[in-house]
Amino acid sequence: MPVYSMTGYASAQHSTANSNPEAESKNTPASHLGLEIRSVNSRFLDISFRLSEEFRPYEPALRELVVRQLKRGKVEVRIALETATQNSFIEPTPRLLQRLNAVQDSVKAWLPEASPLSVADVIRLSVNDTSCAHDWREEVLQLADETLKELLSAREREGARLATMLLERIHQLRVLATQAGPLVPQLVTQQRQRFMERWKEAMALTDGTTLPEAAQDRALTEATAFAIRIDVAEEITRLDSHLDELERLINKGGEIGKRLDFLIQELHREANTMGSKSAALELTHISVDMKVLIEQMREQVQNLE
C-alpha cells in the first residue's frame, strides 16, 4: 500500500461550445468551467469550499466525494466559471425583455424616482440569465471526480518521495547508534584506569594507616557507579526498536502519519537521554547529530496522511 502525503494540488477544466442550434439562435456564449483542489497538512480532515452562488447547491455532493477519497488534510475546493462574452454579443430574448419590463413597471409603481433600465443593464442581465439557466451538476461532479484522482496521484508521488527520505534518515540513525555503542565500554575502562591511578597515588602518600584493600574497593565502586550512570545501552536498544517499527510502517504504507509522529517523539526522547548521559565529546556529537536527523524526520512526518 502506498504512502500518501497530505500536500497536493490538482485541477480540471470543462468547456461548453454552442453545438446546439437552439443555443446558437439565442447567441448563448461558450463557457469554461474550472475546478481545482489543493490540500496541505492538518491533524484532521478540514474541507472548505470557494463557490459562487450557482454552485452552492452542489456542495453536499462535493463534500461526500472528498470525504470518500481523503482521510486527513486541510482541503480547499474552488470552482470558477468563465463565459466568453468578450467576443460575443448576447441578444436578449423577447421573453426576457417582457420579464424585465414587467419587473421595471412593478419597481416604478413602488419607487417612482427609480432610474429606468439602460441597454447595458439589459445586456448584463441577459448574460446572468443565460449562465444561471444551465444545470452544471453533472459537469461539476465529473470534474470533481477527475480532480480527486489527480490529487491522489500527486499525494502518492509526494508520499513516495517522503518515504524515501525517511528511510535514508533511518539508515543514518542506525549508523550513529552503531558508532555510539562501543564508546561506553571504552569510557568505563578509561574511567576505571583513572580511578586506579588516583588510588595508587593516594597509597604512595599514606603512612600505612589506610588499608589498601578498602581503598581499592572504594575506587572500583566509584568506577562501577560511573559506568551505570553513563550507560546508554538501553537507549540504543530502544532506539533500534523504534527504527525497526518506523521502517516496517513505511514499507507497509497506508494511513501511518499519526503513528509515525508518536514514534518520532520516542526517538527524540532517547536521543535526549543519550545526550544527558554523555561523558565524552564524541557521544555528545552523536546525540546532536541524531536530534538533527530526528527533527528533519518530524517535519516530514507531519505531511503524511
List the helices and strands and how they pair.
Blueprint: E1 8-16, H1 21-25, E2 31-40, E3 45-50, H2 59-69, E4 73-83, H3 94-110, H4 119-133, H5 137-180, H6 183-205, H7 212-230, H8 233-252, H9 257-277, H10 281-301
Parallel strand pairs: 3-4
Antiparallel strand pairs: 1-2, 2-4
Helix pairs in contact: 2-5, 5-8, 5-10, 6-7, 8-9, 9-10
Quick summary of this structure?
By secondary structure, this protein is of the alpha+beta class. The protein has helices at residues 21-25, 59-69, 94-110, 119-133, 137-180, 183-205, 212-230, 233-252, 257-277, 281-301, and strands spanning 8-16, 31-40, 45-50, 73-83.
Model description:
By secondary structure, this protein is α+β, with helices and mostly antiparallel strands. The chain has 2 domains: 8-155, no CATH class; 157-301, Butyryl-CoA Dehydrogenase, subunit A, domain 3, CATH 1.20.140. The protein is built from 10 helices and 4 strands. It has helices at residues 21-25, 59-69, 94-110, 119-133, 137-180, 183-205, 212-230, 233-252, 257-277, 281-301; strands at residues 8-16, 31-40, 45-50, 73-83. Strand 3 (45-50), helix 2 and strand 4 (73-83) form a beta-alpha-beta unit. Helix 8 (233-252) packs antiparallel against helix 9 (257-277). Mean pLDDT is 80; it is low at 18-28.
